[in-house]
Amino acid sequence: MSRFAIQRHYAAMQPLVKLGQEIRERGHLDSKLVELILMRCSQINGCAYCLDMHSKDARAAGETEQRLYLLSAWRETALYSESEQAALAFAEELTELPSHESVSDALYERVRQHFEEAGVVDLILLVGTINAWNRLNIAARTEGGHYKPASH
Question: Which domains does the chain have, with CATH numbers?
Answer without folding.
Answer: 29-140 (1.20.1290.10)
